[in-house]
Amino acid sequence: MGQYGVRMVEGPNVRLGNGVELLGGTKCYFDPVDIGHSGIYCLSHAHFDHLPSKMLGDEVICSPITQRCAQDRLKRKLKIKEHPQVKMLDSGHILGSNMFLFEGEQRVLYTGDMCPRDRLGLMGAKPVKTDTLILESTFGLPRYIFPPREEMERTILNWVEDRLASGRSVAVLAYPLGKSQEMLMLFKGMDPYLYGSSLLTTQLIEDVGVEFSYRPFDLKRAEGPFLLICPTGVRRTSFIESLRKKGMLTISISGWAIDPSFKQRMGVDETFPLSDHADFNDLLWFTEKCEPSVVYTHHGFERDLASQIRTRLGIDAYPLVKDQRSLLEF
Fold first, then answer.
1. Closest residue by Cα to residue 285 from 143, 125, 169
2. Main-chain phi, psi angles of 154, to 5 degrees
3. What pLDDT was estimated at residue 318?
4. 134 and 163 within one domain
5. What is the layout of strands, in order, in the sheet containing 98-103?
6. Are residues 286 and 264 part of one domain?
7. Structural domain of residue 34, as residue ranges?
C-alpha cells in the first residue's frame, strides 16, 4: 500500500523532470524543457509554459500550427517527425493542440492542456481507453465548474451587442494564441478588429491554412463603436487607457472568472467564465471514460485532483512533483 492507502500499480516509469518523462526502452518526453538528440519529444501546443527553454535537437512530434507558432516564439526551426509508437489526438484546447497516445507494453495517454467539449469549430478531446493517464489539473478543484458553454456564449454575445448598440466600444482582452482565435470565431459576424500580438499570432496560424474574418486595428481609421480583440498584456497600457477615456469598455473571458477576485485583479469592466480547459467535472468524466489503471496528475492543482480521483472514482492517482524518483515518493 502507498502512503495514500491505495494499491501501488505496476506500470510505466513516469516522472516530472524534462517535462513529463516516460522512461523505459524508448524514452519519451512530453512538453520537454530541453529538446535533445535522443528520445522522442512531443509538443502538445505552443503556449509558453509548454515550450522548451533549451534546444540541442530540433525534431519534435507536433501539429503544423504548433510548429509554426513555436518556431516564432522560440526563434528556432523545428522539424516535424513521426514515431510508430506515438499517435496524436485532438486535445480540444486551442487550434493545433494535441494529446499523445504512446503504445508500448502499456498504453499511456498524455493529455497536455485539454477540453473535452466541442466548441466554435474545435473538436473536443475524446476519451481513449488507456492503462496510464497523465492528466492536466489546471481547474482540478471542485469549485471550478463552468456554466453551460452555449449559455455563456449567448451571454457574452448579448452583452457585447448591447454595449455596441448603446454607442460604447468594447475591447476583449484575450491571450494571443488560442483565446484570441476563439473570440474571432465567437464574434465572426461582428467585424472585429485585431491588435498587437493577437493579430500577429492569428496571421501565423493563417500561414498554415486556417482562415479568419477580422480587420487589423488602425486607430486613425477605426470608427466607433467597434469591437477590438487584443492581448491581455495591454490592459494597463496607455493604448488601452486612452481608449477607455473615450468610453471604451474592457472585458476578460477566462475560466478563472469563477473566482470573485478575478475581475478586480484584471482591472476590467466585466468578466465571463468561459474556458479552453476542462473544468473539474470534465476532468473526472474524462478520467472515468478512459478507464485507466493509474492516473498521474500535473500542471495545476495536481495534489487536490489526484485525491478527488481516488476518492470519487476509486482509481489510483498520484500527483507528479519535481525531483520525484519513484512511486514511493508520492
1. 125
2. -65, -40
3. 96
4. no
5. 86-90, 98-103, 107-110, 132-137, 294-300, 316-319
6. no
7. 13-143+277-329
Residue bearing cell 492569428? 202
C-alpha cell at 310: 481516488
Number of H helices, E strands in the chain: 8, 20
Q: Which among 251, 272, 293 is the end of a domain?
A: 272
* Angle (CA) 277 199 249, round 5°: 75
Task: Specify if 126 maps to a domain.
Answer: yes
Looking up residue 315, the CATH number of its domain turns out to be 3.60.15.10
Alpha-carbon distances, residue 179 vs 41, 152, 182, 183, 292 (angstroms): 26, 15, 5, 6, 31
Q: Which residues pair with 100 in a beta bridge?
A: 88, 110
Helix (H, G, I), strand (E, B), or coil: what is residue 260?
Answer: coil
Q: Does residue 2 form part of some domain?
A: no
| Gap between the Cα atoms of 73 and 45, Å rounded | 12
pTM (2 d.p.): 0.92
Pair 95, 110 in one domain: yes
Bridge-based pairing of strands 227-231 and 170-174 is parallel
Q: How many domains is the chain partitioned into structurally?
A: 2
Residues 232, 129 within the same domain: no
Q: Tell me whether residue 36 is in a domain.
A: yes
Residue 127 lies in a domain: yes
pLDDT along the chain (330 residues), means of 10: 36 85 90 95 96 95 97 96 97 97 95 95 96 98 97 97 97 96 95 96 96 92 90 90 93 96 95 97 98 97 98 97 47
Helix ranges (DSSP H) in 208-330: 238-245, 262-266, 280-290, 302-313
DSSP 111: -
Spatial separation of the C-alpha atoms in residues 242 and 267, rounded to whole Å: 15
CA-nearest of 38, 84, 44, 99 to 66 is 44
Residues sharing a CB contact under 8 Å with residue 328, sequence separation 6 or more, in sequence order: 2
CB atoms closer than 10 angstroms to residue 308: 21
Angstrom distances, CA of residue 16 to CA of 115, 206, 320, 324: 22, 34, 6, 7
Judgement on whether residues 190 and 206 belong to the same structural domain of the protein: yes
- CATH code, domain with 182: 3.40.50.10890
